[in-house]
Design brief:
By secondary structure, the chain is an alpha+beta fold. The protein contains four helices and six strands, in the order ααβββαβββα. It binds methionine sulfoxide.
Length: 165
């Protein structure tokens, strides 16, 4: 069940993401569709993307589907960055002011706040959803609940369709 603090827009968006997850032919197709839909519907999400752990090197995240400015961070070790912190801890990380966080890996001068939500499959972290905003402290408890549910949709897709996890 969605958390009670989700906005009606987020509840409807999650329904669309669940529908997408039932019809897409691949994980990449799911992630591409998700970033497009999410970025279009939530205007304070100025960079929306996936990082997935490299199956050949689970200590490294690899950039996947994203919408937003190109980033130099196409591979991120799990001991670096806000992205690495979320993957290493398995916990959502919310940073209200990226410039005040020494872990922050610079992507855009316009980015002011960031949220990173781990994706789990079979109980293990397999990747994450990363969102940057041009607005300081843009991410509320509703954003966290929305993105954690979106991450569960991706994790459930992997559990159902990917056999070598
Ligand atoms: N800022 C992230 C790096 C990824 S870019 O924001 C897309 C970090 O600190 O890990």
């Amino acid at each position: 069940m969605p958390a009670p603090n989700l906005t009606p827009e987020m509840i409807s968006l999650l329904s669309r993401l669940r529908e997408l997850s039932a019809t897409v032919p691949s994980l990449d197709a799911l992630q591409k569709a998700m970033v497009m839909v999410i970025a279009r519907e939530l205007p304070h999400y100025n960079w929306t993307g996936f990082y997935m752990l490299d199956p050949a090197d689970p200590q490294t995240l690899i950039l996947g589907a994203f919408v937003g400015e190109p980033t130099p961070h196409v591979r991120i070790p799990v001991n670096e960055g806000i992205c690495g912190a979320a993957a290493a801890s398995g916990e959502t990380v919310v940073v209200d002011d990226v410039n005040a966080d020494p872990r922050y890996l610079f992507c855009s001068i316009r980015t002011k706040s960031e949220i990173v939500v781990p994706i789990r499959a079979h109980g293990q972290v397999v990747g994450e959803i990363d969102i940057d905003s041009h607005t300081p402290a843009a991410f509320t408890e509703a954003d966290r609940a929305f993105l954690e549910e979106a991450a569960r949709i991706v994790g459930a897709w992997i559990e159902k369709h990917v056999t070598n996890q």
